[in-house]
Write a structure and sequence with these properties.
Rossmann fold, 47% helix, alpha/beta, 7 strands, binds acetoacetyl-coenzyme A
Length: 246
């Protein structure tokens, strides 16, 4: 894709799942990649380095502003700039509303919503100084349409859309772009936690393709949205869901 070579791309939650596939896709496109994750991302980074990709792993807790500031500083110290932030880190703590606790509500808001705010705020001074940058954030079909057992998660995935649209309006004039990707049900550990009967009988039956998506199919959209081919796409939400919501 056009314009990704030598770009510095920071992927939160990049050690596994969609984040890992996204980091690998950007590496294939010739980008320099920072994997920022609470979990260990050294193995992924070392595999990239073995293929001559310039890559860095930073341990981060996206809910902690000091940790996030250190993440941005390390990326800038290592690569001199940040061109793309992929706000991919996210968690689920599913339960029906009547059983949802304040604790599980707060935990999901802290990572999926405040974490996106923290990471975006941390890279913005650099992007504004560059007068260029792209921030891509993981929404979800659950944010667009709701889902049983996911009031907390849905609130965050809808919330990031509002943040993204606001940022696009505020900072398009500074050469910055902000977009959301809304994955459907993708074959990752997060989806594998869904009870088998629910996944098979309630969710997969609604996907016309009859299968889960592949993490790489989401990664391809992130790469496109970060590329120069998408330079007039700003404030958008694009689904990659195999038509499960129509
Ligand atoms: N869609 C449709 N029906 C669902 C459902 C869903 N997502 N989740 C649960 N149900 C149904 C169950 O099939 C069950 O139906 P019946 O009464 O007809 O059998 C009923 O709701 C009650 O469900 P449980 O018996 O499982 O209730 P529980 O209280 O034991 O558990 C739950 C509730 C924790 C929400 C559990 O059902 C569950 O984990 N459901 C899946 C939730 C889900 O879809 N999570 C998506 C995770 S992936 C993700 O979030 C990534 C993304 O962005 C798409």
């Amino acid at each position: 894709m056009r314009g990704l070579k030598d770009k510095v791309v920071l992927v939160t939650g990049g050690a596994s799942g969609i984040g890992k596939a996204t980091a690998l896709r950007f590496a294939e496109e010739g980008a320099k990649v920072v994997i920022a994750d609470f979990a260990d991302g050294l193995e992924v980074v070392n595999a990239m380095k073995a293929k001559n990709v310039e890559a860095l792993y930073v341990q981060v807790n996206v809910t902690d502003t000091d940790s996030v500031a250190a993440m941005a500083a390390k990326a800038i110290e290592t690569f001199g700039r940040i061109d793309v932030l992929v706000n991919n880190a996210g968690i689920t703590k599913d339960s029906m509303m009547k059983k949802m606790t304040k604790e599980t509500w707060d935990a999901v808001i802290a990572v999926n919503l405040t974490g996106v705010f923290n990471c975006t705020a941390a890279v913005l001074p650099q992007m504004l100084q560059q007068q260029s940058g792209v921030v891509l954030t993981a929404s979800s079909v659950v944010g667009l349409y709701g889902n049983m057992g996911q009031a907390n998660y849905a609130a965050t995935k809808w919330g990031v859309i509002g943040m993204t649209k606001s940022w696009a309006k505020e900072m398009a004039k500074n050469g910055l772009r902000f977009n959301c990707v809304a994955p459907g049900f993708i074959g990752t550990d997060m989806v594998r936690k869904i009870p088998e009967q629910v996944l098979k009988e309630k969710i997969l039956v609604k996907v016309p393709a009859g299968r889960l998506g592949e993490p790489e199919e989401v990664a391809a959209l992130y790469a496109f949205l970060a590329s120069d081919d998408a330079k007039f796409i700003n404030g958008a939400v694009i689904s990659v869901d195999g038509a499960c919501t129509i």
